[in-house]
Amino acid sequence: MRTVRNLFALKSSRISRVLLSKPSKRWTIRQLAFEAEVAIAYTHAIVTTLKEQQYVATENYKISLIDPIRLLRRWAASRNYMTENTILEYISFEKEIDVFYKKIGNIKLDYALTGLVGAWLVSPYVRPVSFDMYILDRRVRKEIEQQLNLQPIEKGGNVRLVIPDDEGVSYDMQKINGINVVSDVQLFVDLFNYPARGEDASQSLLEKITKKWGKALTGDKNV
Questions:
Q1: What b/e sequence results for 97-117 when a residue is b if at least 16 CB atoms lie within 10 Å of its CB, and e otherwise?
Q2: Which residues, listed in sequence order, are joined to residue 180 by a DSSP beta bridge?
Q3: Is-contact 100 92, C-beta < 8 A?
Q4: In total, how many domains does the chain have?
Q5: How far, in Å, CA of 100 to CA of 32, rounded?
Q6: Which residues in the chain come in under a pLDDT of 50?
Q7: Rg (CA), the chain
Q8: Residues 62 and 168 in one domain
Q9: How far is residue 132's CA from residue 216's CA, in Å, rounded to a whole number?
């Protein structure tokens, strides 16, 4: 039976992202492939590998997660946000984070915050001193630069516009106070190997995720 060598390569990680975004849901191969936008045959190979490594179980052709926290940690450990995306650095002369959030809230373009600036909205723990924003449509980059009054710099900027290595980062994106933020799952993956106290912020976020998943997996309707 076909398996995959790397569960966390770009396309194959989409399956983990979908499973982790809805940890209590039971999926068929076809449903999972459609949701993740991955070919059915490749999805089958990924699920076979996940099952061999005891991340999922199958019953009556339905796939369910066994240990979502272990899968999330393994995926996060395999990724490096700073080296696996295209990062463009800028200087912003706006130092007040609340003012910066207000400016971002006025942007009606395809973006999503991540890193410490995203975590501050989701699970405040480490106050950010730099700002990371995925550009989900390359065509809007110049407009975002103009709206935020960003000055390009070769290195050492306090704002990063990030062209993701896979557009799947926008899956299950959330809106907080009118601001687009990547999903909690994507945020944890990005923070895990992120510099400047990213690991601390990721552990704070993991506590929130664990609590939320615990309720979901036990059928708590208040989740």
A1: eeebbeebeebeebbbbbbbb
A2: 175
A3: yes
A4: 2
A5: 37
A6: 219-223
A7: 18
A8: no
A9: 30
Residue 126, number of CB atoms within 10 A of its CB: 19
Q: Are residues 101 and 25 in the same domain?
A: no
Question: Per-residue pLDDT tens for 95-125?
Answer: 788 898 999 999 989 999 999 999 999 999 9
Range of the domain at 116: 81-211
Give the type of residue at 141: R
Of 74, 91, 110, the residue that ends a domain is: 74
CA–CA separation, 192 and 200 (whole Å): 8
61 and 90 in a single domain? The answer is: no
Q: With respect to residue 67, please indicate whether it lies within any of the assigned structural domains.
A: yes
Q: Which two tokens stand for residue 95?
A: 């130092």
Let me know whether 106 and 203 are in one domain. yes
Q: Phi and psi for 37 in degrees, rounded to 5?
A: 60, 50
How many angstroms separate the CA atoms of 7 and 54, rounded? 13
